[in-house]
Task: inverse folding
């Protein structure tokens, strides 16, 4: 019985990790859709960067963060 309990706990842990990963992918996809609708909105790029960080995709997250910085600099000069 103890062995079955351990196996169930391991399965639950795996399911939680899978759900977390799925939420990260969903967040990143939602950010991509928002970027398609409003590519000059730095908040959309920030959401994408956060989603990519959660998915451990550092290089792509840094690219999105660079886009946030570029767009933020551009919006500061606007009235």
Result:
């Amino acid at each position: 019985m103890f062995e079955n309990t351990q196996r169930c706990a391991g399965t639950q842990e795996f399911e939680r990790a899978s759900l977390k990963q799925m939420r990260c992918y969903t967040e990143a996809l939602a950010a991509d859709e928002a970027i398609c609708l409003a590519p000059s909105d730095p908040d959309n790029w920030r959401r994408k960067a956060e989603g990519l960080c959660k998915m451990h995709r550092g290089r792509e997250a840094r690219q999105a963060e660079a886009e946030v910085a570029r767009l933020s600099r551009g919006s500061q000069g606007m009235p």
The chain has a mean pLDDT of 85. The longest helix spans residues 2-37.
